[in-house]
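Hi,

I'm pasting everything inline rather than attaching a file, because the server keeps stripping attachments. The sequence lines come first, and each chain or strand is labelled.
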Amino acid sequence: MIVLEKRPQPSKAWSYATPLVAVVATMVFGGLLFAILGKNPVEAIGTIFWEPLFGEFSFYYRPQLLVKGAPLVLIAIGLSLGFRAGIWNIGAEGQYIMGAIFGAGVGLAFYPLDAWYIFPLMVLAGAFGGWIWAMIPAFLKVRFGTNEILVSLMLVYVAEQLLASVSLGLLKNPEGFGFPGSRNLQSYDAAHNAELIAGSGMHWGVVAAFVAVIFAYVLLNRHMLGFHIRLTGEAPRAAKFAGVNPPRLILFCLGVSGALAGLAGMFEVSGPSGVVSIDFNVGYGFTAIIVAFLGRLHPIGILLAGGLMALTYIGGEIAQSQLGLPAAAIQVFQGMLLFFLLAFDLLTNYRIRAARSEVA
Amino acid sequence: MKFTSLLASAAMALGLATGAMAEDKTKVGFVYVGPVGDGGWTYEHDKGRQAVEKHFGDKVETVYVESVPEGPDAERVMTQMALEGADLIFTTSFGYMDPTINVAKKFPNVKFEHATGYKTAPNVSVYSARFYEGRAVQGTIAGRMTKSNIIGYIGSYPIPEVIRGINSAYIHAKKVNPDVQFKIVWAYTWFDPAKEADAAKVLIEQGADVILQHTDSTAPQAAAQEAGNVITFGQASDMSEYAPLPRVSSIIDNWAPYYIARTQAVMDGTWESVNTWHGIKEGMVEIGEISEAVPADVKAEALALKDAIASGEYHPFTGPLKKQDGSAWLAEGEVADDGTLAGMNFYVEGLEGEIPQ
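And the predicted assembly:
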């Protein structure tokens, strides 16, 4: 008989090992899935993980990894701060949308003026849009004790409606023949978040993601506030004695995650996407939750996890067109990753022991 | 700049490579907004793809990627197809417009065909079907069949294509039943079975006994079946698994002839950028079997309308017609021009509610 025994201390070794074990298990079971679908599993897994990095057209896919991974990392970093302290912002998708609307709105307001200060203003507006949207659940939680999970999640749907509204009205391209969607910011130089080095995929959002990783690392390891965040999550009672002010922590964590999600939205709308449209958001805010946990809520881990997620997206598309794998299979594959991570996470806190069954 | 030229040179190298191989295989790519199993829009495009494969056999190779979000992801998928040597790429959703134009610029030797958009380039064609012709037939049946005089309409996005359909269905329902009233719900999605089912249920609760949909899944059909006494029409695809009730007829998008013709043009080297808008006459829009649940006289009336449209004798937007605000639009006998129809952003007189702004 097998029993689970709680470890006196969470295992450090397992907490590092579980993401790797989860990736391996995903490859094994994903391969099995592909085999059942009648595809060569080695070829399929190889296509997903190898092709984007070292395949024939990796010169195009590698920069795309940055483009796809940057918003995930930027949002996940913000979320991880709150998650560590037990503050659950599930509505990053909404904050991402609001950042995009605010950022693009400021840029379009200046159209067609050409001035150096437009883009920085858009960055500020984007961060502000995400921040203010996150302040709603934060304020309600601090003032009335509402559940931030529900409020932040519900506000995603409100943001989606607002997005539809501005795409059809306020920000609609006046030269768009009545079709919804804004002007394309890619063709408005002063507001365009272009690649810093052409062909590298490096746009300002990627830079911001790297900066966020460094800041989060320093904050969590070297700063009193970071200590408070960790303490609140790990030992709430001790945190109280250490003088943590919970409302301030809630406002800070939700505010930062909102602002970072807003920035991600702003960099996306002014760069890779270009237009505010009804379908602008594609789920980065939700996927970032997976990225945050896959990265163990650790800044460096999140950086790696964001890269891995981006890899499965891009590799998945290649597998679809080259091998004819259905999109749903790729989504199941991505879902497995989180599933196995959470499953193996058990081993961090518990150990498996073979117990002799005793005769009664 | 460097990147563009890099891509361009890669494309040229590939162009040469595929040019050399062109004798044996033409590669055709398809980018889909929904899953191929949606039973509607994407399903029909994929049937078109299969028809291309069947028609040309070994001479073509087709590839597709499904459920591609509109935006940067679509751009990447198209680039990937072009890099891998596609000669012709069909991008089958309105939201792929800017990505298609962007990628087409980088691959001047690859031909692109964008469905339902309006931006063309030397290597980008646009194509769409006159779905509103089918809507006229639907509206006639709906107006005759409704007992509550309330017709529910599930809109996807308030874009001209959808608004045109609503107007056409309304005009023809009203013609045969002056008491008819339309209730419109906007789902803001092309494909989301849960949302579509909810929209159908809301409309049924509000008294609608006919549901028209401009979304791609069969979920509204299932919701109608569950409610009973509600009729529906297949959208984009026949959806005949719901016949004879609730599905009494359908609009079928038949892309196969167009896809085959365009692939042939690429093979022959005669491909040119065109703006195609075909309807019932050319067979791009088909009316699915009208089921036995529809009385014979109504069926005859609907088929007569279909034939009149097919022969060009009748245009679904023929005056006298007024706009919703009461202002004049088309005078007696006047027919709407394609430009106005293409950018249609107003309801006709009698429709209630506002187009979301």
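The longest helix of chain A spans residues 58-84.

If the labels don't parse on your end, tell me and I'll reformat.
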